[in-house]
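Would you mind writing out a protein's amino acid sequence and the numbers that encode its backbone to help me picture the idea?
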Amino acid sequence: MTATAKSTARKAESSDAAEWGARAGIAARGLLWLVIGFIAVRLSFGEGGKADKRGAFSTIRDQPLGKALLVALALGFAAHAVFRILEGTVGRREERDDRKRLLKRLWSLVRAVVYGALAVSVIRFLVSGGGSSDNAKKPTADVMSHSGGRWLVGLIGAGVVIGGIAQVVRGLRRDFTEKLNMPGGTMSTVVKRAGTIGLAGRGVVYALVGSFLVEAALKYEPSKAKGLDESLKTLAGQPYGAVLLFLTAAGMLGFAIWSFLEARYRDL
């Protein structure tokens, strides 16, 4: 990257537009989890629906101005991806340690890929009028058909489980407050509680999905792999499953609320 390009990128990364784009992406994430959470609540009461991205997109599309809202969702995810790309290439300048700065930039680029993929999934849904579900069986089977694929799936599943547990710990320890411009008074308590419930709730969901990947690898059965919707419905089929699913859904809704609060108070 030339000096001129680097200077331009740095100005863009620290601009108000980039900050608003970053906040828009976090808010879009909150909306997605809010809709999925409500679908999960319906499932816990025995009603139908698909508690995954496709189900959320379909629910949003069917609302008044739903397609316009989906476009806004895609733009929010894309704007956040651009912010993370800038952060991953020229950002994190407050970190003096070269190694730590490099790791943080790499993590920002990973996030850029995640949000970029979300933007693409919304666009594909709008263009096709449908989009793919979160069915994990086919990609899992494809990976497991290769030499060493079974263990790769197991490692990915274990990583997702560990990541979920880390989210739960982060929520309970309230480490997230370090990256916020914390408000005062009652609002501070609201933010802390929403962060605790939300991060712990998302962590439980991740751990649940990851556990099915691990099971698929251990039993060498790709059919054991489940996406979010199938994982939640499997949970509902367990003893006291409706209660467990409702509590999980409440955690998902908590994460949605936390996302909206993070969009407002995140130190960017």
The two ends are 24 Å apart (CA to CA). The chain has a mean pLDDT of 85.
